[in-house]
Design goal:
single chain, three-stranded mixed sheet, 6 helices, 31% helix
Length: 181
């Protein structure tokens, strides 16, 4: 505990544990401390601690990428939004998601938009299966801190938000992406 805030320590790396607004969004998984997985977790926490906002986990199917990402979020008390990409994923699907309310389909903000708004971690699974245009949009969000939504709103980083006008969604400082491929 540092300054009253709980800390998680793996190896030589410590990171604060957040108090989630919505604890139901924090993964709770059964995890076995396999030495190789603990080593990867230590590297992931080291990246978080160093200020890396986004991480890419690449590996064969079944090696535990999802388990590692979920365990990291569980240890850090971080809320997760989840998107699984596939060859038919569209740019629109990145920003809007259909939902059923009172028997009617309504379009709501996607997990990506919610993660940006609320400072959650967006876990993008199967990123290698997505069409090139979808990957390019995500790359622009990560590198440029900006993304235009279908309804005219723009997701923008703090740096861009200070200069921007109009219907903008500033990216929350706690927003992160864990991309699995």
């Amino acid at each position: 505990s540092e300054n009253g805030q709980p800390m998680i320590k793996i190896g030589h790396v410590s990171q604060p544990v957040l108090q989630p607004e919505n604890p139901a969004l924090v993964p709770h998984i059964e995890f076995y401390n396999i030495p190789k997985h603990v080593g990867v977790l230590q590297e992931m926490i080291k990246d978080f601690a160093s200020g890396e906002r986004h991480q890419l986990l690449i590996g064969n199917q079944g090696v535990g990428k999802n388990k590692l990402a979920d365990r990291l979020l569980q240890l850090l008390g971080r809320e997760r939004e989840y998107m699984q990409l596939h060859r038919d994923t569209t740019v629109q699907a990145l920003t809007l998601a259909p939902s059923l309310k009172d028997g009617v389909v309504v379009w709501e903000d996607s997990p990506l938009v919610r993660a940006c708004l609320h400072g959650r971690v967006l876990m993008i699974d199967e990123a290698d299966k997505a069409p090139l245009e979808v990957v390019c949009i995500l790359k622009a969000l990560v590198e440029d801190g900006e993304m235009v939504l279908a309804d005219g709103r723009r997701i923008v980083s703090d740096a861009v938000a200070h200069k921007a006008t109009g219907n903008i969604i500033p990216i929350h400082p706690n927003f992160r992406m864990l991309v699995l491929a």
